[in-house]
Write a structure and sequence with these properties.
single chain, 334 residues, mainly beta, Porin, 14-stranded antiparallel β-barrel, two-stranded antiparallel ribbon, 12% helix, globular
Length: 334
Amino acid sequence: MGVRYGITTVVTFCSAVCAVAQDPHFTQFYAAPTYLSPAFAGTTVQNRFALQFRDQWPSIPGAFVSYNLAADQYLNGLNSGIGIIASRDQAGSGALSSTSFALQYAYEIKLKHKVFLRPALQIGYVNRAVNYSKLIFNDQLSRGGDVATYEYYDGRKVGYSDLGSGLLFFTPKMWFGVALQHMNEPNQSLLEGESELPRQFNLHGGYRFKLRSGGMVRKDPQSIVAAFNYRAQGKFDQLDIGGYYERDPVFAGLWYRGLPVKSYKTGYANNDAIAVMAGFKVGDWRFGYSYDITISRLAMNSGGAHEITTILELADKRKKKSMSRRRVVPCAKF
C-alpha cells in the first residue's frame, strides 16, 4: 500500500512540474482545430461544435485527463469567423487542475481566386488549482497511508488572462499555419512566487491528395490527407506527422509523435508514440477514436492514451449547398 501511495505522490508532483512546461495536446488535433489555432474559427460553411476527451497513460496512478469543448461559426457578411473554446486538464488523480475559457476572432482575406489568408486573435481566462485532499504526504505514508495528514494547507488557486494569435493560409488542396499561445507569458504559480507559462509556438499544415481512376474522380470521392503539427514550448518541442484515408462515411489513419533527431538526455530518444485512428460520419455527426501506442521508455507501464472526438456541423441544407459552391475551407475534416 505504501508503495502505491508513494508512486501516486511522485507522479502528482511530476505532473505539476511538467504542467509548467507544456500544455495538454490531442492526437486528433484537426478534429477540433480551434484548439490548435484561433485562425481556424469559422472555417466551415456551417456552425460547428466539437468535443474531445483524452485519457493519457491510464495505467499510471495520477495520470492526465483532458477535455475540450469548442464552437465556431462563419459570419458571411463580415468575412469573419468567431469561436468559443473551453478546456480542462486534470493531473495527479485530479489533484492539479486547469480550466480555461477563450473567445476567438479570425478575419478572412481573399488573396486571389480560391486562395485565402486568415489572421486571428484569442483572448482567454485560466483558473489553475490544486486539491490537497487528493495528495498523500510523508506523515501519512509513515503511519500507514489511509489516515489524515497533520499538514495543513488552505485551498490554492490562481487565475490569469491568456492571449493567443494565429495565421492560416489555405487553398482547396493545402493549408499552412502558425499559432502563438500564451503571448503574455502569464504567472501561473500557486505558491505566490513566479512561474511564467512559456509561450507555445505551433507550425502546422497539410495537403489533400484526391484519388482518381481513369482520369476521373470516383463516384464516391476518396482522398489521402497528409498533415503535420510541430509544437515548441519552453525547452521542449515535438512533431506530430502522419495521414489518413477518407472515403465517406469512414476514415482511418496512422500518426507518429516525436522528434528523433533531438534528445533531451543521452540515451533518451525523443520518441513518444505511434497513434492509430479510425472514425465514421453519420449525417451531420462525425465520431473519431484514436489510441496512442507508447514507444518511449514508459511503453510497458503507461497504458498508452485513449482519445474520443465528436463533431457536429449544423446548417440549413439550402444555405449549406449555396455556400459550399462559394467558399473554400481548409480540407482536414476528421
